[in-house]
Amino acid sequence: MIAAPAMLSSVLALAEGPLDAHAAPELRWAGLALLLPLLSGVLCLLCGWMKVRSKLPAALTIAALGGAFATILRLQGVVGETPVVINLFDWISWTWGDASRFHGFTANVDLYVDRLTVFWMLFVTGLGTLIALYASEYMESDVGKGYTRFFGAVSIFLFAMGCLVMGGNLVMLYLGWEGVGLASYLLIGYYFTKPEAVAAAKKAFIVNRIGDLGLALALFLTWQCYGTVEYAALWKAIEAAPASSEWTAQAIPWLLMLGAFGKSAQLPLYVWLPDAMEGPTPVSALIHAATMVTAGVYLIARMFPLFVVNPDALAAVAWVGGLTALLAATIGMAQYDMKRIWAYSTISQLGYMFLGLGVGTTFGASYHVFTHAFFKALLFLTAGAVMHGFAGQLDIRKLSGLLKVPGFRLVSLLAVLGCFWLAAFPFTAAFFSKDEILVSAFTAKDERVHLLGWIGLVVAALTAYYTFRVGFRVFFGPVKYEPGDEHHGHDDHGHGHDAHGSHGSHGSHGSHHGHHAEFHPHGPRWAIRVPLVLIAVGAILAGWPSYRTMLNHDEPNWVKTQVVQSSAYQGGSADSHGSHAGHDESSNEVAHAEQAHADHGHLVLGMDAHTAVGRLGSLACIAGILVSLYLHLINRGAADALRRTLMGSIATRWIVVGAERKWMVDEFYDWVIRLPLRLIANILSAIDELLLDAGIVNGLGALPAAVGRLFRPLYGGVVQGYAVTMAGGVALVAAWVIWIWLRGAN
């Protein structure tokens, strides 16, 4: 258990942290980062209305996103250590009663800009621009059809993400949160004539509604407990009352956590993300690399002052992240569709990020978001380039030796580079960001999370294995390929066999194509190649902050300075506080010494945590790569033999079947949630139809008609009939009068 006094002292020190915001009306031009994507979305709408049949929507979107990136670059140069609030225009301002803090609600269209804001927006807008450039060629077969709709949705997506990150209050964050959900629904379901794409879009939208409910409730409770939803005022309110024992205050981080788990695809709400592969490949890169799936990590990092006062919530974040990372890695090992493998790796890497947040290192989590954004975008976009050139083929059993195929050498080299980064090979950018998280897990004050360090190392080995399972199968070995059955631009990929299969049956290069002899794969053009190269350069340079620190120990990590000069500063390690305003060089040296002492106080296999994690992480990575090298390059038949052996024993068959069927989580949800709800819905529908509608509503309505039919023969228009009726009526009245008279006489 994290010591309560330590946590309280951390919160009471808020005044010393970089949370004192001031107004900066002179920076209103920063709103261009939001206005430009919104403008491109409107222009794409006009292009659709005017039936534009050219690449103009792509050009407008690329220009707008490039302008937004330039705006953020300029903002990076002017924002200092103190956050600024930039009012764009007034929006909601209600007051009632005596106008105290609980008698008013204010949520203006403000920008809250600190180092974390700029840091996040740099890779969101930068990668968004490059992905839009890539998509301009990738989606060209849809020019005149869905091309305008695609780029309009991309513009909406980036506008909403900007609102989420730059908004000055929780209301703007929530609107951006819902906006990216809407845009992702439109993009995942882009191929709306495909039932699979429609189902995937609905699944993503509905599953995210669960998390969004948690975020909405957290917003309400935040106002109820602290009287404001604006960040600048909220930090001061938390400083004044850091550790409220009321259940409403204690529930806020748990509800925020639910929202984060939905948007960032963590247990138990991760099931929407693998199916999101039904969207075009640029959508996969956009959603899974730098934007939507990182929103949950950003939410917890931004609201970290609310989490540090609730150690149980932080422990829950850590455990959910660690278990998600492990579960997704085991599933990724047994999939055959390249994009789905990268999708499960995204879920797993997001688990690492939440593990980092839960063990208290917002720096490690944010750094891993940063490195992951580049190498995962690279892997998805190279997969898209392969798919684009091989008629939709993504089955790793039907592609081999692409490094030797003309037109795909550059793509293959960049994909292999991405594999090394995803596997966290020693001294790559991901190696440093992952190790920061694992070191924090082993050295955390909360002993409940120490086991997660070992789980993280296991996940590292599994990640290296399944990453190079793709790398060795697809890009190395003999040149063999079998084209897909889709036209370029359509992301419809089948799943085929249950085993790796014999490559001898695949269509091969040259004279061995068989019935695929007429197919010739075509390599990508410059609009795809240039973004891939730039993103690869970004993936390499993402490790530069750590390289500088290695070369000069007095040089602070640039990413760390961005995080600790924000509301997430309490998640920096001890030495990170040396970069705070007001800390001199001697205090920085003291912080370094304290951190070193803390690490030596937590021994892992007799070594200090940093040394142990570096060595064990490297060993896990190299071991995973070597196993994959043997099974998927040197002796590919051994992989099939191993699978047959495992399937042949009842004691191990469940491992293969479970991993290939994704541990039947979707089936479990069908049986436990979906089918019971459908049964209840059918029962209620039957009650409504048979009892309420047919029995009560229609029955009461039919009663007057039945009575009318009973008396209808008496009024047939025949005079004799009327006379008989009158006589009968008189007789009945007389009989009734006589009966009453006789009763009275008795």
Rg (CA only): 32 Å
User: How many beta strands in the DSSP annotation?
Assistant: 7
Cα(first) to Cα(last) distance is: 92 Å
Structural class by SSE content: mainly alpha
Biggest sheet overview:
3 strands, mixed
Explain the overall architecture.
The protein is mainly alpha-helical. The protein has a domain at 26-309. It contains 28 helices and seven strands. The strands form three sheets. The protein has a three-stranded mixed beta sheet with strand order 1-2-3. A two-stranded antiparallel ribbon has the order 4-5. A hairpin with a 2-residue loop joins strand 6 and strand 7 (607-608). Helix 16 (362-389) crosses helix 22 (558-564) and helix 19 (451-475) runs parallel beside helix 24. It is globular and about 120 Å long. Mean pLDDT is 85; it is low at 1-16, 487-515 and 574-594.
Topology:
Elements: H1 4-12, E1 22-23, H2 32-49, H3 56-78, E2 84-95, E3 104-113, H4 115-138, H5 147-166, H6 170-188, H7 195-226, H8 231-240, H9 247-263, H10 272-275, H11 281-290, H12 295-302, H13 304-307, H14 311-332, H15 338-358, H16 362-389, E4 399-400, H17 409-422, H18 429-443, H19 451-475, E5 480-481, H20 526-541, H21 544-551, H22 558-564, H23 585-600, E6 603-604, E7 607-608, H24 609-634, H25 637-648, H26 653-660, H27 665-711, H28 719-745
Helix pairs in contact: 2-3, 2-5, 3-4, 3-5, 4-5, 4-11, 4-16, 4-20, 4-22, 5-6, 6-7, 7-9, 9-12, 11-16, 14-15, 14-19, 15-16, 15-18, 15-19, 16-17, 16-18, 16-20, 16-22, 17-19, 17-20, 18-19, 18-24, 19-24, 25-26
